[in-house]
Structures are given as structure tokens and as C-alpha cells.
Amino acid sequence: MENKNNDNVILPGFQVRSLVDYNSDNDKAIIDYDEAIKLNPNNADAYKYRGIAYFIKGDYDQAIADFTKIIQLKSSDNTAYINRNIAYYNRGITYINKGRNDLAIKDFNIIIEYNQNDIDTLYNRGVAYYNIGDFSNTISDWEVVKRIDSSFKNINQKLDKVREKIMATNSTK
Q: What is the spatial distance between Cα 109 and Cα 101, in angstroms, rounded to a whole number?
């Protein structure tokens, strides 16, 4: 019997070797994922891992392109939903690193629309708000983070710093 999904058999080999390559050579990992994508242009995992490799290299535009491709893939199974959620998150983080906090906020909003208690996403949306000087929304997001897990990334100290920044800004007006 012929395996019409031969690419799904080959991909795990690329993933294993490429995950090892992340620690030593992202370019080799990217080459492996390029090959996996040639074999199956609809494999979200290949785009996800290649996007991560590009991110690690600092090639944010390529990372964004791969994460965007995952979002655009047409599928309705649970795996596709999870992959899109991860892609929005990864793309949001990449946008922050590119200084495109407005776009990061949009991606994080999509995730939070479905999961209002996603602590990592709330925290990072707060970071994006902070980066654009929207301290009120930073505090709103980080207060939810604090309610869920008061020890998360020293959230109490970070909230205090934002409040101090607001007070300092208000005192100079």
C-alpha cells in the first residue's frame, strides 16, 4: 500500500535533527524545515519550528512570515486551532522584538478573546502596552496576571514600577 502522506513520515526526522541543530546551527535547522515544507506545504509544525529558528537568529521578518502562514492554513481540527494559537503568540512576541507593539497587541487580543486567563499572553500584552506608554492597560493586564499567579515573573515588583512611572509622569505635568 502506497503512503500518500510520505511527508508526514519524513517530517519527524527533520524535526529531531533540527531541534538538535537549534543549539548549534539555526541555518541547518532552517534547511531541514525548508525541505519538510517542500514535502508538505501545509505542515504547520514545519513552519512553527522554522519560524522559531528564524526568531532565534533575529530574522524577525522571516519568523513573522512563517507564523502568519500557520494562521492562514485552512484546517478545522483541534491541532490547527492549537497551532494557530501558538502562531499568534509567537508572532506577537516577534512583533514586540521588532518594535511593532501595536501588532503584538492585536495578536494577543485574538488569543485572549478565547482564553481570558492565558497568563503568558496577558503578561506579554502588558509588556506591549508598556512599550507604547499605555500604562493603564499594562496595569489592567498585569493585575489579572497577579490574580492568577502572584509570583509570576515578579509581577508585584513590575506593577510597583509601572505605578511609580505613572506617578513620576503625573508629577511633571
A: 12
The residue among 118, 117, 116, 160 whose CA lies nearest residue 138 is 160
Residue 69 has pLDDT above 70, yes or no: yes
The pTM of the full predicted model, rounded to 2 decimals, is 0.83
Length of the chain (residues): 173
| In a shared domain, residues 16 and 76 | yes
CB 63 within 8 A of CB 94: yes
Q: Does some domain include residue 110?
A: no
Domains: count for the chain: 2
User: Where in the sequence is the domain holding 148, given as residue range(s)?
Assistant: 117-173
- Rounded to the nearest integer, the mean pLDDT of the chain is 86
- Rounded to an integer, what distance in angstroms lies between the CA atom of residue 2 and that of residue 128? 49
Q: Grid coordinates representing 169? A: 509622569
> Which DSSP string do the residues of 35-83 spell out, in sequence order?
HHHHH-TT-HHHHHHHHHHHHHHT-HHHHHHHHHHHHHS---SHHHHHH
- Of the chain, the percentage scoring pLDDT greater than 90 comes to 72
pLDDT tens string 72-115: 998 776 788 888 999 999 999 999 999 999 999 999 999 999 99
